What we know:
Elements: E1 3-6, E2 12-15, H1 24-36, H2 39-46, H3 50-63, H4 70-83, H5 88-103, H6 115-124, E3 128-132, H7 137-145, E4 156-160, H8 171-181, E5 188-192, H9 195-203, E6 207-211, E7 228-229, E8 235-239
Parallel strand pairs: 1-8, 2-3, 2-5, 3-4, 5-6, 6-7
Helix pairs in contact: 1-5, 2-4, 3-5, 5-7, 8-9
Amino acid sequence: xxxxxxxxxxxxxxxDIEGTTSATGFVVDVLYPYARERFGTLLAxxxxxxxxxxxxxxxxxxxxxxxxxxGRIEKILHGWVDEDRKATPLKTLQGIxxxxxxxxxxxxxxxxxxxxxxxxxxxxxxxxxxxxSSGSVAAQRAWFTYSPEGSLMELVSGFYDTExxxxxxEADSYRAISAAVGVRADRTLxxxxxxxxxxxxxxxxxxxxxVRRAGEPCFAAGVGGHPEAFxxxxxxxxxxxxxxxxxxxxxx
Length: 252
């Protein structure tokens, strides 16, 4: 299904990663096990590093276990992974390990086949691209640095996560991003596969498109009344005013 926006009506596109630009299966089957196997070593040997120590303190607070030692912290993290919980300290620690794995060449990120070409086209036409993911900013940067086509960092103007923006299902998080990037809400387009995130973005005044990928966990649930596309090349940001439809205003 094609979704069109009149030329010049979108100044910025904000991208979700998992299930939108990239396969959830890659994250679950490759990245999660990679970090899980290394949590214990990270906590035991690098617990004094400021970023690790801050994340550990956050784990203790969220779990309500102020005296949890490294072994207990590791078990809590494993439980959160099993639940696919979007806890900020979990994402921080995963991000540290993933970034190092990408830098060592042990990991290469995944993008759906059309995504990189479409992003390059949008950027070439002056659309500013941002990322907003539950994964940490460190993980996001590594993801876009170590893609199958090399670094894509020149395409992205900024990265946001649950720590520097807030929870993805709260409208205030999207308002915070608008304030930070200086782009009008009604000229900002959010792409995600999750209806709750799309609802929050729309509440903040953003344009929205739900990206539905066959085989993704949210595919069967639909996109909750938002315009939908099955691939990025079905999203047209340069339609003539006469060709653009009501979907450009965020309605089904």
